[in-house]
Amino acid sequence: MSKLGNLGARLHRGEISYDFVGKRKIWYGVSILITITAILGLAVRGLNMGIEFQGGAVFTTPTKMSTSVAKAEEYANDASGHQAVVQKLGNGSLRIQIAGIDTGQSDRIKQELAKDLNLDPEKLAADLVGPSWGEQIANKAWEGLAIFMVLVVIYLAIAFEWRMAIAALVALIHDITITTGIYALVGFEVTPGTVIGLLTILGYSLYDTVVVFDSLKEQTKDITKQTRWTYSDIANRSINGTLVRSINTTVVALLPVAGLLFIGGGFLGAGTLNDISLSLFVGLAAGAYSSIFIATPLVADLKEREPAMKALTKRVLAKRAQAGAEENATEVRGTGDDAGEPAVVGPRNQPVARGRGRGRASGKRR
């Protein structure tokens, strides 16, 4: 952990860095590929909408059922003619969901299920869910998402600038698309819990992005008054300076969510946890990725299009070229000295005094 802390301190001071912004075309390509895969998953497989969105019936058995999930699913499929979803709850009872049936069908299916499961029909609880209720939930979720997006753009445009607001919006759409695409590819059921988880990850996604933007805003004050760094250079320093912090917060947030998803939903069989835990897990990871590889490089791209930033980039590059030329000239001179060659090239004439040696015995001319 001390090594990680030292690494974070060195990144923050700018002693070491990774060129995230300089390699942004690679990250853009990776993100586009992932997004296309998610969209294809949505188009081909579609979302497995829960009973709350389709309407249907939910049957709950008494506790400590000896019938297996697979067998109960077979009974429910035969009785209803629809694809049933069976989950084993923590108290040992079975929860059987059958979508797309009405009240008359529900009564008949209840009788057949009770017979197959060797139960008294009165002990098999049945609840009907209308599709209109699920439709209302979906509409409210879309309305909430739209309002959230608008408020985020307005806030970031005021607190920072419109380019950062656009970059954050693109990153959010990127995260939502990937999360819903994973749901389509994996086939997990979409429930109201999924919607809650999806709305929750938007805040986490913005958190890392705003941290980097705040550092970038602070470091780019009076940027045009210097000729050492371009806007992209400072953007890259901002990412590196907050990199370890972003990784730490993301890992800490992912650990309990991973426990819900892999231990609770996987090993313990609490399938009801999967709907919310998968959206949180994928969304948190995608949010950390987009804040580093999408949002900040996109801001740098937009800013570098400004005339003032273009002029600054030319001045910085010209100064670096001049410094490089001077350094090369110094190295050439230094190489000559090291080889034993004179530092000054050309003949060096010394004047000879005409009366040199006169008045001396050894220097008498004849």
Automatic annotation (TrEMBL):
It holds the Pfam family Sec_GG. GO terms for biological process: intracellular protein transmembrane transport; protein targeting; protein transport by the Sec complex. The chain crosses the membrane at residues 26-44, 141-158, 165-188, 194-216, 247-270, 276-300. Residues 321-366 are annotated as: Disordered. It is a multi-pass membrane protein. Residues 355-366 have a biased composition (Basic residues). Residues 112-304 form the Protein export membrane protein SecD/SecF C-terminal domain. Forms a complex with SecD. Part of the essential Sec protein translocation apparatus which comprises SecA, SecYEG and auxiliary proteins SecDF. Other proteins may also be involved. Part of the Sec protein translocase complex. Interacts with the SecYEG preprotein conducting channel. SecDF uses the proton motive force (PMF) to complete protein translocation after the ATP-dependent function of SecA. Belongs to the SecD/SecF family. SecF subfamily. PANTHER family: PROTEIN TRANSLOCASE SUBUNIT SECF (PTHR30081:SF8), PROTEIN-EXPORT MEMBRANE PROTEIN SEC (PTHR30081). HAMAP family: SecF_B. This is Protein-export membrane protein SecF. It comes from Streptomyces capoamus. The gene is secF.
